[in-house]
Amino acid sequence: MDVSRIGLGAADVSKPVGTRYIIIGAGAIGGTIGARLAGAGHEVVLVARGAHYAAMKADGLRFRAPDGEHVHRLPVVEGPDALGALRTDDVLVLTVKTQDCEVALDTWGAARVADGGTAAERLPVVCAQNGVESQRMALRRFRRVYGVCVWLPSTFVEPGVVSAPGAPLSGILHLGRYPRGVDDTVRRIAADLETARFEAPVVADVARWQYAKLLGNLANAINALSWPIAGEEAGRLYERVGAEGELVLRAAGIPYVSAKEQQEARGDKVRSAGGGGGSSWQSLTRGTGTIEADYLNGEIVLLGRMYGVPTPLNELLQRLATTFARERRPAGSLPEAELVRLAHEAVAAAGSRG
Question: Each residue of 158-167: pLDDT tens digit?
């Protein structure tokens, strides 16, 4: 494997100019975005906690990709105090899981900016996460919020190590102002991402892409609980969980990109050999004690209750995934046959309630 040791990219040889990207949550998504931006010569700060912070502080971020393994020795902090006053050209990239957003937004939103005001008043925050809730949280605190539909296969299960198997691009990141629109800031961010092995289309309707991605993420809990899935009945469970989501979005009048439009946008640009489970599987594997199911399956459950659409399968997955995380049960430890049995019971119980 080709191993390269990379510091601050262009910042190694000259004073950094332009945007500094502060990656709040340098896990699978954040670590990949940060590593690729740094490799393209952009200034990057990584934010992490615990063993991951300690590993990157000591030995750098080990980034594994099809073009080799790269060790990025970047500034790593646990919070804004370590940076002093933030710069007016800083962009905050929020990549923690949604269940960790409120603490991160409050912490970084209160940080002071060099020539006055706070980050929440002055700086853009880019929400690059699964689901749709984090940017709503952000908009309660930050004046300038940007959403991202993240299509980025990546894995983080070992402190200090992030893997991204996608090629020839690492990922596709649709960006837009939240709740709608575009501006010069999002165009500048997209242009920087385009230099770093991403396709970054700027769209005025980023939520439409995010809701489509949400439908795909509803199966994350299945993978976390019983991965890998092999049986025919379990395969049908994927379809039925997604169908519940589609019914709910239609009842709520929420537009989303069709599967055909998604496929046309992605094409063959991010080929991936796989290598692990999805983001929820990774949370159980790391034993974090929390999982994002409340903001994936739980979003469909919430909307279903608001608009009178039964969602027994998403309710089941939300409950099971949350329990597994809280009790730190191993990823993939629920037998597939047991998951299928519980799904049948959930649907039958919903039918009996009318």
Answer: 999 999 999 9
